[in-house]
């Protein structure tokens, strides 16, 4: 296997990536070349980790590169080396060896790393490997199902295995590795087609029902406009399925009350037979009323004051909080400042989790706008040399941003506060129940749980519901 340090090799591979052609393969005759190309319907970029051969789909790779001296990001998981400026775009760098718990020699300053620059949806990552070999063209039908014996990694990250020229390549599922949130557009379109078909059936059923109406019903009453039927199970089912497919929003006991009220208002606004969600824009419009105040933005003083009043008395020397679904970090920093204000003598510790690796990598570097710095945040910010505002070292050190999917095992200590607004609704039904159980397990007896303003644990006998204005909190029974 040739070292990637060969500059001509780098050029050749990048050319193959850009053109998506098998120019890297050479044959002894034009006839053989044409014959082989006719059979190739899948190309992959091959590389090695700990002496074993791996590959990923060429369509996921933008380019290859060599780089070092990444910008360190504190409080991230061990496999995140930092961030890197790729021609003006700041991207997170992940060491795939560390991700798979493969031993790596100690790094020295100035060492260049072999990187694959990959794109998952709209996000770009740099992944560090041992060596990058070449582009290999194969027949997709030759890819065999994965087996645990083929690699030192979890089988769920393996798409398959394929043998080429007596070398066995482990084909990685790069989307699964990075927890991609990419929408499957074909599934959306299929759902929409199904909705249209079922809507047609529903229309026939409605007409048949009207024909069977009581004879005493007057013609005038028949012609009178009807209010939207909130419990129209057919229409509501269509909308539920669309929200799940388009925006991964799962209607369940945690948000069903809001969903029914929102559907009634939606039906009244849109009119009869126009309740269906025909696009992601429709789904976003439907969900616009769902989100809590100051979602994904800086907290206003009014909202911060409301949360402050709901934080319980606590004389502990350390206050520990869990903020799953932290997003870009604005909510987490707001919470950190507020906790420091509420518990000035305590050491604050916040575990901030998200499945968006780019967000959690960039969050510690978040700058503070002037308007925010001069608002209620003022005691917790400081000016940098360039006159930009940033949070104080104490606030920054109180937060640990981590790449983590809360639907999986949450290895956390018991916590005093759980702040999980507008999160649980965007998980599958099983994950929702699992996370609710985690909340009960991780929260201290005197702790408090914050959910989104339209998410609820009412009716769950394990929790006591408290309401203050539009904000609901929960304590353990």
- Identify the quaternary structure here: single chain
For the record, give the distance between the C-alpha atoms at the N and C termini, rounded to a whole number. 62 Å
| Proportion of strand residues | 25-35%
Structural class comes to alpha/beta
Low-pLDDT residue spans: 1-5, 21-33, 180-231
The outline comes out as globular
**What is the count of helical runs?**
15
Mean pLDDT: 81
State the total count of DSSP E strands: 19
Strand order of the largest sheet: 15-12-11-16-17-19-18
Radius of gyration: 27 Å
Sheet of most strands: 7 strands, mixed
Helix content: 25-40%
Task: Give a description of the structure.
- Helices cover 32% and strands 26% of the residues.
- With 477 residues, it is an alpha/beta fold.
- It has helices at residues 7-19, 30-39, 96-99, 174-177, 185-211, 219-223, 233-247, 256-270, 280-287, 301-310, 330-342, 357-362, 370-373, 393-397, 429-442; strands at residues 42-49, 52-57, 61-67, 80-86, 89-95, 113-120, 123-129, 131-138, 158-164, 167-172, 318-324, 347-354, 381-383, 389-391, 399-403, 415-420, 443-451, 463-468, 471-476.
- The model is unreliable at 1-5, 21-33 and 180-231 (pLDDT under 50).
- It has a 7-stranded mixed sheet with strand order 15-12-11-16-17-19-18, sandwiched between helices. It has a 5-stranded mixed sheet with strand order 8-1-2-10-9, covered by helices on one side. The chain has a 5-stranded mixed sheet with strand order 3-6-7-5-4.
- Helix 5 (185-211) runs antiparallel to helix 7 (233-247).
- It is globular, with a radius of gyration of 27 Å.
